[in-house]
């Protein structure tokens, strides 16, 4: 079975991960429902989840334990019970969990709500959501987010998928490998955690301005520079790119000089 990568924003990363775990995790759909619920509500009481998800409390506890072990959800606070019983655990998504949630089509239908829920998790993206809307950049930032998520899927694809050659007039497609087990799923979780800190750079990163559509990108950056935080981000990001490139150049220049010396000694 093949999946259209051009519609990657409608084919979830988390759904992909959970499908690979289906052989040993029959409740993968429950994970998806929980992550989706947290994305749309931000915080949710553990005690109320069985009624909202439609599963027993034992099942919910088992799924929550797995999601916490994977680093996708976390306890954000506790509240006193109105009936004087045990304290209520209030849970929310981690940054890694938010990246998974962004791959669900249901989440994108309420992306404005999700953005306001998790403004602290992605401060330069969701934290500036109202700014993007005021400047008429909502569609542009959504496109960039979806492209970043799509790139995320393709990065995971290096581990789980193989490219399927198609006619040049058809969208690029990938094929899900059937034999993927628990170890692969754990590797994917580790990859998500590694990616989370760099996700903002994937959405806003200045390196994309070197592409053919650079004039459009510069139009975007000209507008967002009106925000001091975003302006500072680009100052830092571009200066870091220059420093990194300079260091790489000096390394290769040293290698070239050493090569030339070796060549000269051989010729002599």
The tally of strands reads 6
Q: Quick one: overall form? A: extended
Q: What is the CATH topology assignment of the largest domain?
A: Arc Repressor Mutant, subunit A
CATH class of the largest domain: Mainly Alpha
- CATH homologous superfamily of the largest domain? Winged helix-like DNA-binding domain superfamily/Winged helix DNA-binding domain
Largest sheet: 3 strands, antiparallel
Structural class: mainly alpha
Question: How many helices does DSSP assign?
Answer: 13
Strand order of the largest sheet: 1-6-5
The average pLDDT score comes to 76
Oligomer: single chain
Instruction: Give the DSSP E fraction (strand runs of 2 or more residues).
Output: 5-15%
How would you describe this structure to a colleague?
With 268 residues, the chain is mainly α. It has two domains: 2-204, Winged helix-like DNA-binding domain superfamily/Winged helix DNA-binding domain (Arc Repressor Mutant, subunit A, Orthogonal Bundle), CATH 1.10.10.10; 207-268, no CATH class. It contains 13 helices and six strands. The protein has a three-stranded antiparallel beta sheet with strand order 1-6-5. A three-stranded antiparallel beta sheet has the order 2-4-3. It is extended, with a radius of gyration of 23 Å.
